[in-house]
Amino acid sequence: MTEWYDAGRETVYLNESNNTLAMIDQTKLPYELKTLELKGIKDIWDAIYLLKVRGAPAIGVAAAIGIYVVSLSVNTSDRDEFDRRFKENKEYLNSARPTAVNLSWALNRMDAVLTDNPVLPVPDLLQRLRDEALRIKAEDTEMCLKIGENALSLLKKGSRLLTHCNAGQLATTKYGTATAAMYLGHERGYDLHIYCDETRPLLQGARLTAYELMAAGMDVTLCCDNMVASLMRQGMIDAVLVGCDRVAANGDVANKIGTSVVATVAKRYNVPFYVCGPTSTIDPMTKTGNDIVIEQRPAEEVTEMWYERRMAPEGVKVYNPAFDITDNELITAIITERGIYRAPYDF
Ligand code: MRU
After folding, report:
1. Average pLDDT of span 306-324
2. Together in a domain, 292 and 216
3. Which end of the chain is less congested by CB atoms within 10 angstroms, N or C?
4. Ligand 1, from 25, 244, 246, 280: best to mutate by most atoms within 8 Å of Cβ?
């Protein structure tokens, strides 16, 4: 490992000195802490698809800043032409990943700037787009902080917490969602112990969550995904905190593949299972988890990625969904910046 992450370092931001979308390249962690600066729409699409920037809130912020940066090089003063190109770019970016609603949510907010200002000249419109992108980013930090306060109110000092995937600072602009209470508790002497599972196949738990929480000085233990039941059966976990990519109106939750396994086991052993997310991740237009599109990813992520050598026979069929649905009855509460919601859900 080369460098510890400094919590002051931003996950995703607008570099105003050269008008680029800047982001930590999360595919390089924990070995290399590298910042990318992107301007081209294809590079931005790739960064989202390839998980260089990942985590629902961070994807939303990247898309908002990204479409602003791309709009800067739309070389026209004609509003109709500008709006047409904006919509093309929006549609393209929106196709990068289907499950996290924050992507379309952020792009729709940027699009509303055009709709709300139909006759504004292009240079002024660009200024408004910049302001909106920065507002989306600032709001994300505020929401995470409030989620953290709300989640911490449910935790006791000395709690042993399990988290899945990375719903940390690396997945947001600051604090994370599932990790926000961990950061706040750590600052306030809660003496928390954090277990994170590896999160096969892309190892967001091992590569990202363990890394960022250890960098913050927390007490972290890593386990494989299939060890979670063993930990809970032995009474070693007091609560589970996870993030979310889309919450349906009935409280079903799409989150990283494996989340529903953890939730099912938590229910079996009476461990509270909390989902943490900003209201931007709640999608009232989606009625239940059955209506959520689940992203399917390439087979190589399972058979060879991260291994020195391929670890499965050539030609084997692979099932690799990036997310699963946790049924609402497995969830103890959904914690947002607005408060703590319990079934029946009325967001
Ligand atoms: O595929 P990823 O790494 O983008 O998946 C991330 C997750 O599933 C997170 O738990 C979710 O986006 C919440 S991040 C605050």
Report:
1. 97
2. yes
3. N
4. 244
